[in-house]
Write a structure and sequence with these properties.
314 residues; alpha/beta; binds S-adenosylmethionine
């Protein structure tokens, strides 16, 4: 059963962080022998359906935390702590960590690996469904933390695109930086420009909201179980202002989605079936935006999509 938003389960051991033993340091989870032992003790096995590929190379953990560049004033959201390997290092580097794990069967192992990490709040929750704004608001009044947050995660493959779209489409989520381990192919799609098969709604949303860079790539061997493909850590730095002017962001993203919804069709056709607008209206907007109606979505630049949305909203 999926955890319900209103009924978040907080581990008893982590409910009162101040009562946790202080001065203790966590025994690192990442070395393969410790990971194996933790999984055995708590009778857990990796679930493919939840995208569980645990990092077993301590250097990769250190490299992710270095790419995040967080300090003691940072609030860090971690999605999918797994057995807690990355969480331990985030706890040491950041001021406060909020970790959301969907898999109930990992909670006991996490309670063990994070026992010494008093600045980690662990919740049993689905990151796609959870009210992130509400959960993060709890830390808003902390004077030792700077406003906003960064998200750091070794993301489960199956939620990467919807989760990224959620961060990128919703301007009210106050993230400053996203540092995510993703499949290498997805990292390339995020940075693709017009014209190719890699170019799509994700590339445009990334360009609109952030400056993206690929920090480093890793082979399948740094995980257990090993995924089939290489992975990459990408860093998205939120832009102070989008590079193009868009009045109605909801419409802008709806136009992009409709355009790529049927990417082999002409814009006139894909937009008229994807948006609830008649062909005449769309054709007029395309004309006003100086975009030939026979073009396909994958040939449009960010600026052209912005112009099109502007002309559809008036
Ligand atoms: N952070 C750990 C590591 O690096 O070893 C585990 C990473 S593993 C790739 C992905 C984690 O995300 C798993 O622990 C999985 O159970 C969790 N997960 C999967 N779907 C989730 C969701 N919708 N919300 C929160 N966590 C999720």
């Amino acid at each position: 059963a999926m955890p319900q938003n209103g009924k978040l389960q907080i581990l008893p051991g982590l409910r009162h962080p101040n009562r946790m033993s202080s001065g203790k340091t966590a025994r690192p989870v990442a070395p393969p022998s410790v990971t194996r032992q933790l999984m055995q003790t708590h009778a857990v096995s990796a679930k493919k359906s939840l995208g569980q590929n645990f990092i077993i190379e301590p250097q990769v953990i250190a490299d992710i935390v270095a790419a995040a560049g967080c300090d003691k004033q940072d609030l860090v959201l971690e999605i999918g702590p797994g057995l807690g390997s990355l969480t331990q290092s985030l706890s040491a580097a950041a001021g406060q960590v909020l970790a959301l794990e969907i898999d109930q069967s990992l909670l006991a192992a996490l309670a063990e690996s994070l026992a010494a990490c008093s600045n980690v709040r662990l919740l049993h929750a689905d990151a796609l469904e959870a009210d992130l704004t509400g959960l993060l608001a709890e830390f808003a009044g902390r004077e030792d933390l700077r406003p906003g947050f960064m998200a750091v995660a070794n993301l489960p493959y199956y939620i990467t695109t919807p989760l990224l779209m959620r961060f990128l489409e919703q301007p009210q989520l106050p993230w400053r930086r996203l540092v995510f381990m993703v499949q290498k192919e997805l990292a390339e799609r995020m940075q693709a420009g017009p014209g190719g098969k890699d170019y799509g709604a994700l590339s445009l949303a990334v360009q609109y909201r952030a400056a993206a860079r690929l920090a480093f790539t890793v082979p399948p061997t740094v995980f257990t179980p090993r995924p089939k493909v290489a992975s990459a850590v990408i860093v998205l730095e939120r832009l102070a202002q989008p590079p193009v002017q868009v009045e109605d962001e909801q419409l802008f993203f709806a136009v992009i989605r409709a355009g790529f919804g049927q990417r082999r069709k002409t814009l006139l056709n894909s937009l008229s079936s994807g948006l609830e607008l008649d062909k005449q209206q769309i054709s007029a907007a395309l004309l006003a935006a100086d975009i030939e109606p026979g073009r396909r979505a994958e040939t449009l630049t960010l600026a052209e999509f912005a112009r099109l949305a502007q002309n559809l909203s008036v």
